[in-house]
Write a structure and sequence with these properties.
Length: about 260
């Protein structure tokens, strides 16, 4: 039986604290995960006024597992009593994190785990006159807020973390690229891709563009095309399991990911 990843070396760019599961999955399927985090996640403490407004909202909408983890820290280590609010999660992983924190989830997309999928849910159609609190990182996408405002909602941002480019040694990664020892790279956001290119010299970035790129959305795929990548496979979902499935088909000559 042919091993799933056939010894392929896969660049994993998730933040250091969030890379273990994906790296373990790759290694278990006869791949070799090469870690190079291109985002660092740090807490951002909202002021007391914003926290008070959040507690008084009608919907709390969590955009990521980071939003859940850092919201708990922002509230002093424990979520406030949320039974009077509607709780929405942008995806199943975020919903799972909320449930583990003791928060029942009222709304999660059925299939498309992003802002568009969440906005399509019936429970977020009738929000006129209601206050929707979007729990997110500093400087996230505006699509969700704009759509909710167009539906008559008052939108408040509760920004509980920020992302920054890590300061790390890139010599090992440059060596892998120069020796053509990378077979694919995984990118989970546009910002992660921008940082990755910024963290490499021009020669290394050119070598990176020559290998297949696995991304988690058409939006990231479009950005990768603009940055000059030619071989792009889009995972069906942003989950680790779906990313692994896309990698597996990539190295076994099938096309279950949507190649571009």
């Amino acid at each position: 039986m042919t091993p799933a990843l056939q010894g392929a070396r896969i660049l994993v760019t998730r933040p250091a604290a969030q890379a273990n599961n994906l790296c373990n999955l790759i290694n278990q399927r006869d791949g070799l995960a090469i870690r190079f985090p291109t985002l660092e996640i740090v807490a951002a403490q909202p002021d007391s006024t914003i926290l008070a407004q959040a507690v008084a909202g009608d919907w709390l909408i969590f955009t990521s597992t980071n939003a859940v983890d850092f919201a708990i820290k922002a509230f002093g280590g424990k979520m406030p009593a949320l039974h009077k609010f509607g709780i929405a999660a942008v995806g199943q992983a975020t919903a799972n994190a909320l449930q583990q924190a003791g928060c029942p989830v009222d709304c999660v997309p059925a299939t498309e785990f992003n802002s568009e999928g969440l906005l399509a849910e019936p429970k977020l159609q009738d929000v006129a006159g209601k206050t929707c609190v979007i729990v997110r990182g500093v400087g996230g996408r505006e699509k969700l807020a704009e759509s909710l405002r167009n539906r008559g909602s008052k939108v408040i941002y509760l920004e509980v973390y920020s992302r920054r480019q890590p300061v790390i040694d890139n010599s090992e990664l440059r060596g892998h690229l120069t020796k053509h020892q990378l077979d694919a790279a995984i990118i989970t956001s546009v910002e992660a891709l921008q940082n990755l290119l910024a963290m490499l010299d021009d020669e290394s970035a050119a070598l990176l563009r020559a290998i297949p790129l696995v991304v988690v959305s058409e939006r990231v795929s479009d950005a990768a095309k603009q940055f000059g990548f030619k071989q792009i496979a889009v995972s069906k979902q942003p989950t680790d399991a779906a990313i692994l499935e896309t990698l597996t088909t990539l190295f076994n000559g099938e096309n279950s990911g949507r190649s571009n």
